[in-house]
Amino acid sequence: MAQIHRRADDSEIMYYNDPEVPFYVKDDSLLSTFPNWKMLCHWHDDIEYIHARQGKMVYHVNDKEVPLEAGQALLVNSRQLHHAHAFGDMDCLYLAMLFQPDMLSNNIALRSKYIDPVVSSHIPYLVLEDKDPICLCLDEAARLHIEKAPAFELRVLGQLEQAWAYLFQRMEEELHAAGAPAKADPDVAVQKQMADYIYHNYPHRVTLYEIAQAGGVCKSKCCQIFKKYLRKTPGEFLMAYRLEAAAHMLCTTAQSVTEIAYACGFNSPSYFTEAFRREHGCTPRIFRQRAQNAAT
Fold first, then answer.
1. Pairing of the two strands 47-61 and 82-86
2. Which of residues 178, 196, 221 is at a domain's end?
3. Are residues 119 and 161 both part of a single domain?
4. What is the pLDDT of residues 52-87, one digit of tens each?
5. 43: domain range?
6. For 74-88, 159-173, 174-188, which range has the lowest pLDDT when averaged over its residues?
7. Residue 92 in contact with residue 57, Cβ under 8 Å?
C-alpha cells in the first residue's frame, strides 16, 4: 500500500533508492501499488517520468487529463499537481522514475542557463513516444540503475544529463512556438493551500467553509477548483485522504480498526467500515490480513 509522506510545505517526500542520491526508479503497476487503482493528488520538487509498458492509465497534471497507452511516456515538471488512475478495469504496468534537477550540475552558471529555465518554464508536462531521444536516455538510466552496472551511478547521471539536454531544446521549441511565456495559474497555489489544510486536519472535523478559507476563496470557488484539478469535491477528497491514511495504518500499525477509525476522523467504526468497503472492496480487517499475507 503506497502512502504519501509530506514535508512542511506538504510536497511529497521521496524515498530514493539510495538516500544519498536523489534518484528513484522502479518497475511498477497501478494494481500492486494502489489497491484501488488510483493515487491521490500530490506534488514534489522532483521531475517525474512515467513510461507505460503494458495496459493504459489516465494521468492528471494540474487541470489536464492525459491518457497514456503502452509505449507512451509522460514527463512531469517540478511541483505540478498530479495523480493517476486506471483506465476502466485495466491494470497498467509502467516504469516510474523521479530525480532532483539539482543533481545534474553544481555549477551555478550551468544551472542558471539550462536547469532553472526548464523548471520554471510553466510547461507542466510533455507527452513522449518510446523512441523519443528523451525516453531512450531515461530508459537506459533506469536499466543501468536496476542492473547495477559497473559505476552505474555515474553512467545514470550521464544519461540524465543527455536527456536534460534534449529536454532543454524541446522546452525552448515549445516556448518559442507558444510566443509569450505562459503564466502560472494562480488557482494551482490555491488548490495546494486547500489540500494542505486537509492533510493537516483530516483527523478532526473539517467543514467546507474551513477548506475554502484556507485558500482564501468562497465555498463555491473552492468546489470549482477541486473539481477542476482533483476531479473530486472537497468532501470526496477529504474522505479519500482519510481512507488512504487508514489503509496505511492498517498495514503498518497494530492499532484496532476502531482506534484507526477515530484517528482518521471517522465518527464511528461502522461508518468507517462501510466507507472502506466501498473504496477497497473489502473490510478493513480483510485488507489488513491480505497486506500481512503479502508481506510474508
1. antiparallel
2. 178
3. yes
4. 999 998 999 988 899 999 999 999 999 888 988 887
5. 23-178
6. 174-188
7. yes
The DSSP bridge partners found for residue 83 are 60
Do 232 and 150 reside in the same domain of the chain?
A: no
Cα 230 from Cα 62, distance rounded (Å): 8
Residue 68: predicted pLDDT: 93
Residues 32 and 167 in one domain: yes
What is the number of domains present in the chain? 2
- Total-model pTM: 0.75
- The share of the chain scoring above pLDDT 70, in percent, equals 89
